[in-house]
Amino acid sequence: MDLSLIVAGLPSTTPFTPPEVIERQRGGQFAVRLGANESSFGASPLAFQAIQDALGSIQNYVDGTHYELKEALVDHLGCAEDNLVIGPGIDGLLGQIARVLLNPGDKVVTSLGGYPTMEYAVIGVGGELVKVSYLQNGPDLEGLAAMAREVDAKIVYLANPDNPSGAWQSQEALSAFIDSIPSHVAIIIDEAYAEFAPSIPSASKWLHDPRVIRLRTFSKVYGMAGMRVAYALGHPDTVGPLNRIRMHFEVNILAYYAAIASLKDQPHAQWVAEETRKGREEYRSLAGELGLTALPTETNFVAIDVGGSDRAKELIALLGDRGIFIRMPWAAPLNRCIRVSVGLPEERMLFADAMRDIARL
Amino acid sequence: MDLSLIVAGLPSTTPFTPPEVIERQRGGQFAVRLGANESSFGASPLAFQAIQDALGSIQNYVDGTHYELKEALVDHLGCAEDNLVIGPGIDGLLGQIARVLLNPGDKVVTSLGGYPTMEYAVIGVGGELVKVSYLQNGPDLEGLAAMAREVDAKIVYLANPDNPSGAWQSQEALSAFIDSIPSHVAIIIDEAYAEFAPSIPSASKWLHDPRVIRLRTFSKVYGMAGMRVAYALGHPDTVGPLNRIRMHFEVNILAYYAAIASLKDQPHAQWVAEETRKGREEYRSLAGELGLTALPTETNFVAIDVGGSDRAKELIALLGDRGIFIRMPWAAPLNRCIRVSVGLPEERMLFADAMRDIARL
């Protein structure tokens, strides 16, 4: 069959190699899984209860309007219902946004070495990526804005806090960034890790601005990466059109009810964020002890500067030999780092013990 | 923000109004839900056990290669691993197939009044729908094939068994249909209801033919419509490119393990199919008792000819007043029917009692 012009020109790539593929190659499961920024602290007990309560409904399609989840989000965020669109993870929403905003050839500005699924979504609709190198420790906001103007971009993408650096932009820095972007450029702010940051700009902060689309997920602080629920928050004129192409019944019904329940357990989310902060401090101390530097982070992971990409690759392989899965940023200048998710205390101890052995070799 | 040319031209439609929307309008839940061809018989106990066993993993992303589910399907179907792509429901796969095969303006031939999500997927990528009216009781295979030739279609879509008629095509009829389609036209056979049919062409039957894509789901006989897992079965050259654009981690992790477990419980699936046959017979008898005709069906629902679309609408409203949710085909000639899913014996009894009251008014 002749493929569509866009898909015929695409390589067979995947944004990430799943750890399960590495496990099958090495012939055994990892004992410690700290490479995908998943939450070792797990979901709220209320979410698990909601799953149990909804088991009798798995033969039914979900309410494709997501009415109850939107109501819970309206309560939680103080926005209106039409500022929200629910989707199957931020990945799913990025794919939908690319389709809604991009014509083939339209340019999208992002950081070189930033979130690969965003890039995958853009090339999947024939968009063109224009990449701006990271600064030493995080995204180059001025560089991204300048490039957006220079290439007449349709979209500029920024993760805040950022993955894989962990860097966080204050509301002031973000406002200045947004002000510096031309009025016809959409600004996607990927807030997957927002709940770990010291403070988040209020949900209403940019709702008046049709350029700004903020993305939030139940994958990280709410501990449900495998469940696939996230939401887009923005002006109705911008997020509303996602309803024209999204598959209405695609959110899993257990995920749907678990997300509603999770929102009602903010103490759990706060506990996860607090435990995560402790873990980040532990990693920072460990890095210091080993003569290394941890990059500033406000996420559930830490990038540790190990002095170069060859050394980073070597450490990842040595950790892998010990059953510990982590990853590294793939592009300079961040590829001088390894990136390790904050796990449970015992997982962090296993990582620390291994690092003490191998980082001193 | 300027929308993409394709999305700017789209209406704000949804393929289906969810029953929950009707429930909120009428101010109360339906007591009996027989309008969405969901399985009242539920999923396999093995699937529920798999969900319990996987609860400790919901904070993790699924294995995006779907290795274990593909292995289970290879065992079950006797195909090769590269004949399969897993997706979030047939809806999700239809969206992916539309993107992989269609350029804007490409024509897709389908039945007028057939599965609306297929149409939604096609217009969502700028494809053009060309519709062929149903025969009295099911799809017009000769008409579909003739139209595919006449308009130089890129895709022809056929559901077998069909929704909303319930009609089933034998392997001979299907082979003749496929032989009559030009060599450059993709043939999507939506087999969502295949496990209810008296016999299904073997998985290997058309694997040599890159035109044929068959779609199967865990939504119907396996009782997991809310979980969102399905698969495309076909030639590697045709299904393989779905891997270039699918979102790799979009299948829910509980759905993934539940699907693997479901495949291992074929006795449950066979029991559901058998109970469904009994329910169809009950509906057929009921129709006869009321002086109506049930269309031939090999699915988990029955279309009952009530003599006209006004009468069908009236009956649906009257059933709704009694807390019973059903639907009807929207296009002639099938819109002379109501369509009712096979429910549990007690649900069928409530439907029958209500029909005896209102269909004799």
Secondary-structure element string of chain A: HHEHHEHEHEHEHEEEHHHEEHEEH
CA-based shape of chain A: globular
Helix content class of chain A? 25-40%
Q: Taking all residues together, what is the mean pLDDT of chain A? A: 97
Structural class of chain A: alpha/beta
Q: Alpha-carbon distance between the termini of chain A?
A: 55 Å
Oligomeric state of the chains in view: homodimer
Topology:
2 copies of one chain form a homodimer.
Chain A: H1 5-8, H2 19-26, E1 32-33, H3 45-54, H4 67-77, E2 84-87, H5 89-101, E3 107-111, H6 116-123, E4 128-132, H7 141-150, E5 155-159, H8 171-179, E6 186-190, E7 212-217, E8 230-234, H9 236-239, H10 253-263, H11 266-289, E9 293-294, E10 301-305, H12 309-321, E11 324-325, E12 337-341, H13 345-358
Parallel strand pairs in A: 1-11, 3-4, 3-5, 5-6, 6-7
Antiparallel strand pairs in A: 2-8, 7-8, 9-10, 10-12
Could you describe the 3D structure shown?
Two copies of one chain form a homodimer. Chain A has helices spanning 5-8, 19-26, 45-54, 67-77, 89-101, 116-123, 141-150, 171-179, 236-239, 253-263, 266-289, 309-321, 345-358; strands spanning 32-33, 84-87, 107-111, 128-132, 155-159, 186-190, 212-217, 230-234, 293-294, 301-305, 324-325, 337-341. Chain A is α/β, with parallel strands linked by helices. In chain A, the strands form three sheets. A seven-stranded mixed beta sheet of chain A has the order 2-8-7-6-5-3-4, with helices on both faces. A three-stranded antiparallel beta sheet of chain A has the order 9-10-12. In chain A, helix 4 runs parallel beside helix 10 (253-263), helix 5 runs parallel beside helix 6 and helix 11 runs parallel beside helix 13. At the A-B interface, helix 1, helix 2, helix 5 and helix 10 of A face helix 1, helix 2, helix 5 and helix 10 of B.
